[in-house]
Design brief:
Layout lengths: L8 H19 L2 H15 L10 H21 L23 H11 L1 H9 L2 H12 L4 H4 L7 H16 L14 H20 L2 H7 E9 L10 E4 L1 H9 L2 H4 L2 E6 L2 E6 L7 E8 L2 E8 L2 H5 L3 E2 L39
Parallel strand pairs: 1-6
Antiparallel strand pairs: 1-2, 3-4, 3-7, 4-5, 5-6
């Protein structure tokens, strides 16, 4: 008679913060991440973990598989047409959980990172998140997406280039031309966001050129036509009315320029592009038109560090108590990673 070794609840709770971190980076939504962690617990309770030497690593693969399935399911849903764009995101509804907690979590992870991750195919996202952020080896990730370790490495590399804006036109190091200007852009954009979040009217005024011009397309307000506002005081007053949006806004590299991206639940809704001179911000372009947003290359400001998030030792056999044996996932739907 064989003995079934169940996962102790307290052991699962010890790993819950890490599992939620993995799921949130995979899904970009706190409520969906919580659902993925709960599903991981339900499925893990049905598995025999007696032979699993590294429970933390095993649970990471389980939540990764669950999140991957949720991503693939999301990709099969019909797209929202452009003319049905939502101009003001509905944050803080009952099904979204705690909006303040979600905003803090998005800020800690990085809004720009969540936005770029949302553009990746599910297999790319899983390979990058598990390997680059949680130190899971490629030979463990590969069976989860039905790829070879070499192909999985290529997927993560391709995702990494998207995240960091790598390529022939990517900005260089600190001594590259334009580095000082980019540093100034970052300081100004960061100060603008901080002042908006605090509702600090005087701090906003200090950042704006007296003759600053702000343009907002018709999807921002909404209005039948785009809006133009001139003058530091009117522009600052408009920014004061956007403190709710600022909770889900972060710094990002937008076509090589440092600006702000607003993305509740990791879905890009609008960007702010700044033109900066010696006298302060001279122009702000607020873009929410989906066609224009899709044409903007977005990347994180800082390269992902060499040290991944501590996920515990990952030197475990991926075939030990494989989550596939517990019926966690089936074959990938045709075209699911496209």
């Amino acid at each position: 008679m064989t003995t079934h070794t169940a996962l102790p609840p307290e052991r699962f709770e010890a790993d819950r913060p890490r599992l939620r971190a993995v799921a949130y980076r995979m899904l970009g939504s706190l409520s969906e991440a919580e659902d993925a962690v709960q599903e991981t617990w339900l499925r893990a309770t049905r598995a025999d973990v007696g032979d699993v030497e590294n429970l933390s690593g095993w649970l990471t693969t389980v939540v990764g598989r669950v999140s991957l399935n949720m991503l693939r399911s999301r990709r099969t849903r019909p797209e929202v047409p452009l003319d049905a764009q939502v101009t003001e995101p509905a944050v803080g509804t009952a099904e979204d959980g705690d909006p303040e907690e979600e905003a803090l979590l998005a800020d800690s992870v990085g809004v720009a990172l969540l936005v770029v991750l949302d553009t990746l195919a599910p297999a790319e996202r899983l390979a990058f998140v598990l390997h680059d952020l949680f130190a899971v080896p490629f030979d463990v990730i590969a069976p989860m997406i039905e790829r070879t370790p070499a192909t999985t490495r290529q997927l993560a590399s391709r995702a990494r280039r998207r995240v960091t804006g790598g390529g022939p036109d990517a900005p260089g190091g600190p001594d590259a031309p334009g580095a000082a200007d980019r540093a100034r852009q970052r300081r100004v954009a960061d100060a603008f966001l901080a002042a908006t979040r605090r509702g600090d009217f005087e701090a906003l005024l200090a950042l704006l050129h007296p003759d600053v011009v702000l343009t907002a397309d018709r999807f921002v307000v909404p209005t039948p036509e785009s809006i133009t506002v001139s003058g530091a005081r009117p522009v600052a007053e408009g920014a004061m009315a956007a403190t709710g949006r600022a909770r889900f806004t972060g710094l990002a590299l937008l076509d090589g320029r440092i600006g702000l991206a607003m993305a509740p639940h990791g879905r890009l809704r609008l960007v702010l592009l700044f033109t900066i001179a010696e006298g302060g911000i001279t122009r702000i372009d607020v873009v929410a038109d989906r066609e224009r947003l899709d044409g903007i290359e977005i990347a994180v400001l800082d390269t992902i560090g060499a040290e991944p998030m501590d996920a515990g030792p990952m030197d475990f056999d991926p075939m030990d108590a494989d989550p596939m044996d517990a019926g966690l996932v089936g074959p990938a739907p045709e075209g699911a990673d496209g």
